[in-house]
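Exercise 7. Given the components listed, write out the predicted structure of the assembled complex. Treat all entries as one system.
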Amino acid sequence: MLIKRSEAEAVRGGLAASFAALSSGALDRRAFLRRSGVAASGLAALGALSAGTVKKAEAGPMQPGVRVELRKNLCTHCSVGCTVLAEVQNGVWVGQEPAWESPINRGTHCAKGAAVRELVHGDRRLKYPMKLEGGQWKRISWAQAIDEIGDKLLRIRNESGPDAAFFLGSAKFSNEGAYLFRKLAAFWGTNNVDHQARICHSTTVAGVANTWGYGAQTNSYNDIRNSKTIVIMGGNPAEAHPVSLQHVLQGKEKNRANLIVIDPRFTRTAAHATEYVRLRPGTDIPLLWGILWHIFENGWEDKEFIRQRVYGMEEVRKEVAKWTPEEVERVTGVPGAQLRRVAEKFAKEKPATLIWCMGMTQHTVGTANVRAACALLLATGNVGGAGNGANIFRGHCNVQGASDFGLDTASLPAYYGLDEGAWRHWCRVWEVDYEWMRGRFGPPGADDATRKRMMELPGVTTTRYIDATLLEPVKDGTRQLAEGQPNYRAMLVFGHGGNTVVRMPEAVAALEKLDLLVVADPHPTTFAVLHNRKDNTYLLPICTQFECSGSRTASNRSVQWGEQIVEPIFESKTDYEVIYRLAEKLGFANEMFKNITVRSKVPEPESVLREINRGAWSTGYTGISPERLKAHMKYQRYFDLVTLRAGPDAPAEVRGDYYGLPWPCWGTPELRHPGTHILYNTHLHVKEGGGTFRARFGVERNGVSLLAEGSYSKGSEIQDGYPEFTMAVLKRLGWDKELTAEERAVIERIGGNNVDRVSWATDLSGGIIRVALEHGCSPFGNAKARAFAWNLPDPVPVHREPIYSPRPDLVAKYPTRDNFMAHRVINYGRTVQQLAVDRNIARDFPIVLTSGRLVEYEGGGEETRSNKWLAELQQDMFVEINPQDAAERGIRDGQWVLVWGPEMPKDKVCRMKALVTERVGKGVAFMPFHFAGWFMSEDQRRKYPAGTDPIVLGESVNTVTTYGFDPVTSMQETKCTLCQIRAA
Amino acid sequence: MNGFTLKLRAVLAALVICLGAATLDVSTAVAQSAQPAAPAAAHEEVLFRYLQTQGSGNLVGRVSIPDHKAATLIQPGGREFQETWRGPMKWIAAVAIIGMIVLVGIFYAVKGPIRTTSGYAGRLIKRFRGIDVFAHWLTAVSFVVLAITGLNITFGRYLLLPLIGAEAFTSWSEAAKVAHNFMGFPFTLGVLLMFVLFLKDNIFDKTDLRWFAQGGGMIGHAHPPARKFNGGQKIVYWATVFGGGALAVTGFILMFPFQIVTSIDGMQLALQLHGIIAFLMIALIIGHIYLGSIGMEGAFRAMWSGKVDLNWAKEHHPLWVEEIMNPTRKDSSLPAGAKGAGAD
Amino acid sequence: MARMKFLCDADRCIECNACVTACKNEHEVPWGINRRRVVTINDGKPGERSISMACMHCTDAPCAAVCPVDCFYTTADGVVLHSKDLCIGCGYCFYACPFGAPQYPRLGNFGSRGKMDKCTYCAGGPEADNTPAEYAKYGANRLAEGKLPLCAEMCSTKALLAGDGDIIAQIYAERVSTRGYGSGAWGWRTAYKDMVAG
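Answer.
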């Protein structure tokens, strides 16, 4: 491929020659247009065109003779973080050019990225605020909308307390938007705040963070170019992250690497694999243990790595011993010989990386799946180096950032958690009184203890809002909702589809029961049409990220700054402004925006990021200043394709940095830490992006040390494991003397009468981190990764059959966990599983249903299905059926079929097209999850506000999907349920 | 050309199968059972070879857009179509049409118009009804328009375009295209009418054998006996019915592309058959026009007024004259001397 | 003289359809007209391959040979273009095209078609370069700006190559020798009567 325009010039001898007079180097459109001097009056001639030509004159976007500005923003779809280069004339986005300079996408895009310009022209966008009045959509003003919403929220708060409201945020927010939204919920007084990470990678974050410290991709897309063995399990990046395949395939080609795809479905990624493993959906743990069985059996494990850096591998070994090739084949359907081949390659042809996506995470055993995957990486020593690691491909453009900034029921920004220390830390950053903040929480009239309890109790997740709204808090003496959690009465949904959560027939009842529903989004989304609400429903038009500026964090932790391409179109407003206006109406804007610059009610994102810089020490967001990020965007071309590092030829502002300052980027911006391309990489000095496994879980357990043994990052003065840095540790090492007077003053102010407890994460001066780095130490300590996580429900992952298992015979041996309370709502998983067995559901619903992405659409799909360039490519909701299953049912490719699931109302069916294909094995069906607007055979197009209905509507897979939640994160089960299909 | 002949052969084979009452299901079932397994590695050459054994020779896959045509990745037949169009089609057209014109010219030069040797009797007899005349001219006029606009598609680019320039040629061709589309309807109606109206007089019989044996009287000056229509006219009739019918069928297929016939091979074949049949028809009709006008004295009047001179009729269609003059005699093939029933 | 060609490396193409929407975006191509498309063969089976296909700008272009009004022309760079002012929408080029490239807006009676539209290799049409008239009929003229077709420039895995035929063939050949496999330059034999090592 011709990567650079200058190459293109060189190649195109004939043409280039003819342009020799025009330009010696790159000839941009602007230069051309200026030179060509085409008069604008030329447009008049277009009226004479006959009807047969392609389009009407007004569709031609490029105005000759008008100055073209180039602006850089980021694709708002998946997490790869592709730079979008926009051509703007007179404030109108007229064209997209390849962003050659980005080391991540190098000019390329997928279908969605190449079509983003349509989003800001979209005539199907929501144009002004609307509300339902007697069942009719009515246009209202912004002032009226904010007033009415605020009044209703305050009334609900007075009657039922702040926890009766649910703040559902978005992975489409910028970092600054996500942070403000989390802050909004905190200042309102609830932990009922969540976003899409819940339903895509919450189990990854929990599983990975509990293993080695941070809930994030350890390496990067670019680093996969170093791998010799690439295993993709439960992921289809060819459709979900197409640009990542650029790195995967080029790496595969250069290294002649093994590309092994493990998936129930023969995906487009599998089409490029050197080996494809088809497993039964929901049997990831047996499969991973099956691989490890061969590794342990043959002694292929990395014994030195395990000795130095892994805790509890013996416990894993015991569990793995149960998974003989015979039992693995019985449960997963994969022959032992194939797994032996995979095991040998993964253990011996190193570096090997394991890539996973939602096929691993969206299960009732999602967290356990992830930890089993980590165990495989740890056993083979495939973490913490170039070309290896857990390359977790996250879903949305800023799902990593939104997770980092605590759009989460269980944490404040930067994973500080919800305990008192965390609240006190953030109250210090926000410069508000801790007691005042505590007073925001709890039911009306509650005492301080109750308020504190609610303040520290993880909130209800998006997967359970239906139950939080519908379940009686106490029924027959059983608590169904946690004490203090009232039923939901209000829901504020920002940038989130209504078809993303399982059990949609029940969602209708929940949505109809709410006293207030606010949907803030560029499109009405399924939340606007799924129910039959008549009043108290508001739609607020929010602009896309292309219409505002801010930073976003790609899957590899690189943070990129997007610059506003055009002003918000129609009457839409930025997330920032709407959050500000709501806070103002709710009466806490002054406290919340105390240190943030706000201009005519629009908070400035740079100023928000600076506040983040002052508080997010734990993830090293502190070094990531707006100025540094903007310099990275400006000098993208200096960053290396494979190492992501800016070389010696780069301008001083970015020299030596890793692209996007992948966090942790330690200390203050002035410290100029380069960011961390590869986590836990002991081959590099901490100041050069090296690191160790995080000491997050203490220093010893049952007499066994949890700290690393003889392993340390390059240049470390402590050549062994060490705990996380606190003032006490500094003092013991005698390094506290190196703190400056200012740093010491800040630490003393924070510590009060217990200065020793101030840690690297709560030290607002950054002094402790600075000193630790000076000595080559990771501020968070140097520990072992945990193969055995004693604090989680299954400390060593064990196989548990899905709630709706196609193998009821295996349920007795591998049952799901007993019912339990999590995230304030009871989980009846065990009861449902037993009922499914007792009622022989697997006989009436013999097909396993799994779901996933299409390349053309994203998420709930409202935005992409409204994009005419994308919608044309997928015009019908479909279900993939194996030819044998189709033949048994008399189903032909392309015909209409009816699909129904065990939890749907009797006599209701979903109607969609059949795609008869061997992509799915016999007994398995696949549906894409982006469709909505048809609900159990009913076309709901008329229910959208006029002119805002997406071009393509279809049945949602989540109308068919069923009960089932992960015990750790309440992740929903969307990858393995049962259904039945027949010809329409 | 190779591909085209293959296709023609396939069509003939299909006809044979239909006539032989063999069901197509049987043949396709056989084809499927003999299908080799798809090659595992999708090398273009390997796949091509595999696909060549599978019938169409086109590389067909799956697309998500509804346009099923888009699923054909490569159809090498396009190149063959191009070659057929550029070579054989034009040669067939040129040989048939120019050949006929030359032939007619030579004939006219050598023989001149065929005259009624006995002179006009002055007595007219009715040869055609009004509806007959209408059907003929409906077909004739539409055919001429179709032929000219059709030939424009094939040869206009070479003959007319250089003379009048690209813009004018496009304007004319666009109009010609519309005319060609619309004229298809009257032409089809005319052919259907003629088929019905003239069918009973156009069944071949022994008279025609004699007529053919004597070369239709073209050579020499003898007039072989003929009934209402002689062998040559019957050929024109059946050519019009079959050829015109085929032109109508292929024409409608082309007018509704990919709706009646859904495969590109089918469309290509339809277009090629339409062209070739049209060229042959045009050649034939040139001959017909010659004989119906300057080639034969008195013939034109037959189709103009519906009436002919008795002597002309006696010379060219003696048996028909006999039939209409002596209406009881119904069957000319009766043995000499036999009497018709009720003749006495 | 450069001879512009397309080459789709089927071992890289993942049917992400970026080429399709990039084309739609750059030229504002209306719904139903698909200048470029991606076809997947052997769908769902080992050996599945996807290939992005558009007008290949053939040597001795069949469309040009059968066009009744001679509206096609080949530029000095080997790009096959046509004039919508001359096109009568007869549809013959679709029958001749080995790659299904010509597209027609549906107009009027019967199956009557509007003026043909197809991939221009981002090189516009006979009008003056980068004029509104050219844009309205054919879309952007990137070649005149010193840029290559956007579909290839934006290809997510750099499977779709555009540029001088000799150079992209060389790039492809180098890829094949690096990785040790290649399924050939799809359509080259038919389009350019030429093969590339694979």
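Discussion: Chain A has four domains: 5-49+56-109, 130-199+400-615, 218-393, 821-983. Residues 1-60 of chain A have pLDDT under 50 and may be disordered.
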